[in-house]
Amino acid sequence: MDDPARLLIVDDEEVFLLSTAELLRQEGYQVDTAMDGIQAARMLNQRTYDLLLTDILMPGNPDLALVRDLPERNQGLPVILMTGYPSAQSAIQAVNLAALAYLVKPMEFQELLAQVRRGVAQRKVQRAVADSARHIHAWGEEMTRLASGLQAGPGGVPVQQVLGAMLGRMGESLLDMKQLLDLSAGAELAGRVCSAETCPRIESYHRIFREGIEILERTKGAFKSKNLEDLRLRMEGVVKGP
To answer: 7, 17, 37, 109: which could form a disulfide with 60 (CB 3.0–4.6 Å)?
Structure first.
């Protein structure tokens, strides 16, 4: 099970700050709070967050400096802007800063919660894509190294090692695809009568996973690799679910 998403709420209105934080904790989120932009910036430097919810007019936040400086502290962090004093200028700033939402206080908690869920889902997709990019980069480096070994002649890298490495990387790519499909399916199917057992798309990638597991099972005698066996077990765990 994934760890609960961690949120940072920043607002100089203490009652709103503490009550909103408690309501979000009751929804299962980990929530930290700050009452000004300076404290929030320090916390962003010290810890990784999944979402930032911040007031616009508050101490330590001139011209929305807290959000403007985010790329230096937490690249891509989704932001929800909140204000009790809406204006055309702050709305334009929200658009220019690519804020996830611009909410006017007082707001319905369910409205805020819907945007929080949206932001957390966006952050999960960002991380899944970043993980996939790292795996692809590692695959390229490994293939380059193995290719150099093959060019070294008969004493170089055995073909079995090359095939085993490729099979392992393909398995990692399948896991990345599964994670991204799960995230996209969760967003698209919200509110619909559709389950993991009845949705055709979900069943199709489960079938691909099962085929991948069968390939790893059939080839385990040819490729003596603990990494491949670990990969097979991970894929089986994903298919079986909790």
So the answer is: 37
